[in-house]
Amino acid sequence: MKNIKNFENKKVLVLGLAKSGESAARVLKKLGAIVTVNDGKPFDENPAAQELLSEGIKVITGGHPLDLLEEDFEVMVKNPGIPYENPMVSRALDLNLPIITEVELAYLISDAPIVGITGTNGKTTTTTMIADIFNADKHAAKLSGNIGFPASEVAANATANDSLIMELSSFQLMGIDQFRPKIAVITNIFSAHLDYHGTQDHYEAAKWRIQENMTAEDFLVLNYNQEKLKEMAVNTVASIVPFSTTTQCLDGAYSHDGVIYYKDEQIMQVSELSLPGDHNLENALAAICVAKLSGISNTAIKDVLMTFSGVKHRLQYIGTKSMIKFYNDSKATNILATQKALSGFDNHTLWLLAGGLDRGNSFDALAKDIAGLKGLIVFGETAPKLKALAESLSIPVFNSEDVASAAALAFDQADQGDTVLLSPANASWDQYKTFEQRGDLFIDAFNKLKEN
């Protein structure tokens, strides 16, 4: 960790705790800052605030009093989830108080080079692929950022021999100043988070900030399947490294006639990738670009991509029983996510498990994607809607009580060579606290099947 003097004896307000705020507060204290933490959760219900107070950090909880800003703070470190329209943040802007997010702090203290990954979809999978490839080739990589590991905490413990593989949200990127990754990736850009950003243009501008401090010595890996990113590429000084599944990108990674290439070098067969679907091929191409730019061997790249089981609950391969494969895609909480999952499988040998919270929508948009399914097993509040859709398409459909019984029923109905996919197309809250809980119960059900 660089012992920078940027914050020494400066009053810094950390707004919002969660993991990133807690980490930022501790790092700032080590750097000699005079830290105040402000969090909306009451003190009695706030273990993180209690712990920070015991460490000698000032905490103010239970609300966000505007008069707190009358103190002479020199910097605000804002939780990325707090919108800029928040009264506390808005007032800080009026006072011209610099506002950063914790990833900026991580950059300032990091001895390790940073690979930054952003995009609408595929960030977590691509970030994890890259880290696994680095580590397989004995290039020490540490996951950080939006993937669940506070960037400043990871940076504080990293050395110059490590690499920070950092997932970055648009919320985090809005709060950077000097942040400069050695390699940056934008997996794709679709419409998202408009409730936070207001417009698609603002959302895209936030994502594009990942490259604003990069130079020609740095590399920006972009998805050239998207015209939008091709257009944006002319507005950076970073060295562009493209990837595509539809165009032969001779300056980057691409697939052609079932083969994956980096520039003119053959890396592996598309069929050798462990994760199905065009979206996962795109993720793999992005990861290959980063790996090759970092001097990683083809052997390590291929070994990881042939065995990569996916991020938990995101089209995660969990195993095979009696030659029937099981995949956990519990993170698919909407129709679009399930459509992407289905694109990677042969419907004629696929059993789909779907259902969950009824938000009042129909599932007509899913019709073309589930046509020809070997079977559909439904559960939860939306089971009747999904069953009606399946029956209209002459798809065999079965009711189950929950995800665990759905897994058992699918196994009973499936034949050797079939695949069972949990991709619910619905939120989990009718039966489960989180999609993670739903996915864990599916995994538990599979493990019980394996024991028998």
Features:
globular; 17 helices; Protein-Tyrosine Phosphatase, Chain A; 6-stranded mixed sheet; 452 residues; Rossmann fold; UDP-N-acetylmuramoyl-L-alanine:D-glutamate ligase
CATH-assigned fold name of the largest domain: UDP-N-acetylmuramoyl-L-alanine:D-glutamate ligase
Task: Supply the number of helical segments.
Answer: 17
Strand content: 15-25%
Question: Widest sheet: strand order?
Answer: 7-8-6-9-10-11-12-13-14
CATH domain class of the largest domain: Alpha Beta
Instruction: Name the quaternary structure.
Output: single chain
Model description:
- With 452 residues, this protein is of the alpha/beta class.
- The protein folds into 3 domains: 11-100, NAD(P)-binding Rossmann-like Domain (Rossmann fold), CATH 3.40.50.720; 103-307, Mur-like, catalytic domain (UDP-N-acetylmuramoyl-L-alanine:D-glutamate ligase, 3-Layer(aba) Sandwich), CATH 3.40.1190; 316-451, Protein-Tyrosine Phosphatase, Chain A, CATH 3.90.190.20.
- 35% of the residues lie in helices and 20% in strands.
- The chain has 17 helices and 20 strands.
- The protein has helices at residues 18-30, 47-54, 87-94, 102-109, 123-136, 151-156, 170-173, 194-197, 200-208, 227-232, 278-293, 298-307, 335-342, 367-370, 383-392, 403-413, 435-451; strands at residues 11-15, 34-39, 58-61, 75-78, 99-100, 114-118, 141-145, 163-167, 183-186, 219-223, 239-244, 253-256, 259-262, 265-269, 316-321, 324-328, 350-354, 375-378, 397-399, 419-422.
- The protein has a 9-stranded mixed beta sheet with strand order 7-8-6-9-10-11-12-13-14. The protein has a 6-stranded mixed beta sheet with strand order 15-16-20-17-18-19, sandwiched between helices.
- A hairpin with a 2-residue loop joins strand 13 and strand 14.
- Helix 5 packs across helix 12.
- The longest helix is centred in the C-terminal third of the chain and has 17 residues, at 435-451.
